[in-house]
């Protein structure tokens, strides 16, 4: 389809810079280059604006996922045994309620949903009303949440790994599942030459630590389990730890790190995205102890030629290839032993070689092809 008007639902876009929001920014930018006649309305909590003629931000009021209202919702729903009971669910519920009148009146060729099953119900109703197709991209990978979304019968549901695709096809027969992995901008996230690192030393906290250095980039949230990494690192006295991210644990975790790691710990609540590549290049190992459905930060580290370590997962095993390894991150002794082993190993160019399979250049073309097929189906 040459001309198309596409709506994207992403509550946190323009407000937080986590995996979903980064993905939307990259995808829209690259689809604009591939399909200059396509226009995008991004519905989000950010203030309305018009960064370019073909991309509009449209403000939708909703509670902050890290705010008191969302916390209260999560506590009450947890006590009641409600399934959709996380703080993100509170944000998505309020977002969908506020969005409904505007979206039902709007005319679009396609809607891309990153606002969960509440928005999926709205999109299912809109398709019955005026035939607008919609696409959902999996967030958690496996489980009841994705099953609910698949049963809302989107015109396509995107799985980010072959394991999730196989699970969805088995759990929800008849679902139209496409496998398109997440991607990394390899023109930006790349290995630095030693001179490039030396030229950028001033003012960067990572240079306060002696190498080897372990890096964590992610939300300071119980789901990311950052406390497991601090506990493991207390058993690796020869290495420093840098943690970057904001969230509800942003006050307690740094105190834990400062107390347990004694001068070999740096915490940064946030960092401009263009500076992240330096931190990936200076570290010696990247790790996340959470059970990630994918993990874009793993790809960013691999593109900078850094080995990666995760909790046991078939998705990460497929993603890493021979560029990283896995362990039981809930066992601090096993986690610490894996960190020590990886810091003592030479991975050569295996991480950067593996990252080529996830280059945005190819992935964006697959999204363009899928969008075109769904709009003309």
Average pLDDT score: 89
CATH class of the largest domain: Alpha Beta
Please tell me the total number of domains.
2
**Strand content range:** 15-25%
- Give the overall shape, derived from the CA principal axes: globular
Query: What is the oligomeric state here?
Result: single chain
Defining key terms:
377 residues, alpha/beta, Rossmann fold, eight-stranded mixed beta sheet, six-stranded parallel beta sheet, 44% helix, 17% strand, globular
Structural overview:
It contains 15 helices and 14 strands. By secondary structure, it is of the alpha/beta class. It has helices spanning 19-34, 68-80, 87-105, 116-130, 144-151, 162-171, 194-199, 226-233, 252-261, 273-282, 296-303, 314-320, 332-343, 350-355, 360-376, and strands spanning 4-9, 38-44, 49-52, 55-59, 110-113, 134-137, 156-159, 177-179, 213-217, 240-244, 265-268, 285-288, 308-311, 324-327. The model has no long low-confidence stretch (mean pLDDT 89). It has 2 domains: 4-183 and 359-376, Glycogen Phosphorylase B (Rossmann fold, 3-Layer(aba) Sandwich); 194-357, 3-Layer(aba) Sandwich (Rossmann fold), CATH 3.40.50.2000.
Q: What's the layout of helices and strands?
A:
Blueprint: E1 4-9, H1 19-34, E2 38-44, E3 49-52, E4 55-59, H2 68-80, H3 87-105, E5 110-113, H4 116-130, E6 134-137, H5 144-151, E7 156-159, H6 162-171, E8 177-179, H7 194-199, E9 213-217, H8 226-233, E10 240-244, H9 252-261, E11 265-268, H10 273-282, E12 285-288, H11 296-303, E13 308-311, H12 314-320, E14 324-327, H13 332-343, H14 350-355, H15 360-376
Parallel strand pairs: 1-2, 1-5, 2-4, 5-6, 6-7, 7-8, 9-10, 9-12, 10-11, 12-13, 13-14
Antiparallel strand pairs: 3-4
């Amino acid at each position: 389809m040459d001309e198309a008007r596409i709506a994207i639902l992403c509550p946190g876009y323009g407000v937080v810079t986590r995996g979903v929001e980064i993905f939307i920014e990259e995808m829209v930018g690259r689809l604009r280059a591939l399909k200059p006649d396509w226009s995008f309305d991004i519905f989000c909590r950010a203030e309305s604006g018009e960064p370019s003629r073909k991309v509009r931000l449209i403000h939708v009021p909703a509670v902050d996922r890290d705010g008191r209202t969302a916390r209260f919702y999560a506590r009450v729903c947890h006590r009641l045994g409600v399934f959709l009971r996380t703080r993100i669910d509170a944000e998505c519920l309020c977002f969908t309620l506020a969005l409904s009148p505007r979206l039902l009146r709007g005319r679009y060729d396609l809607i891309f949903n990153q606002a969960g099953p509440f928005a999926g119900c709205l999109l299912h109703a809109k398709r019955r009303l005026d035939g607008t197709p919609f696409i959902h991209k999996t967030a958690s990978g496996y489980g009841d949440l994705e099953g609910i979304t698949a049963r809302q019968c989107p015109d396509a549901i995107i799985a980010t790994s072959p394991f999730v695709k196989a699970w969805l096809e088995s759990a929800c027969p008849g679902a139209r599942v496409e496998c398109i992995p997440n991607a990394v901008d390899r023109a930006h996230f790349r290995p630095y030459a030693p001179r490039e690192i030396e030229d950028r030393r001033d003012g960067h906290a990572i240079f306060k630590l002696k190498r080897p250095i372990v890096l964590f980039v992610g939300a300071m949230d119980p789901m990311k389990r950052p406390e497991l990494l601090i506990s493991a690192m207390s058993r690796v006295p020869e290495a420093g730890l840098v943690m970057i991210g904001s969230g509800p644990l942003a006050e307690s975790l740094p105190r834990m790190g400062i107390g347990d790691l004694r001068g070999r710990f740096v915490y940064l609540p946030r960092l401009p995205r263009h500076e992240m590549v330096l931190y990936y290049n200076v570290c010696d190992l990247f790790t996340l102890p959470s059970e990630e459905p994918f993990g874009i930060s793993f790809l960013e580290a691999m593109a900078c030629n850094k080995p990666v370590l995760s909790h046991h997962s078939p998705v990460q095993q497929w993603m890493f290839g021979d560029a990283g390894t896995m362990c039981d991150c809930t066992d601090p002794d096993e986690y610490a032993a894996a960190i020590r082993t990886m810091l003592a190993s030479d991975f050569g160019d295996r991480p950067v070689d593996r990252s080529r399979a996830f280059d945005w250049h190819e992935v964006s073309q697959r999204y363009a092809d899928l969008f075109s097929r769904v709009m003309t189906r």
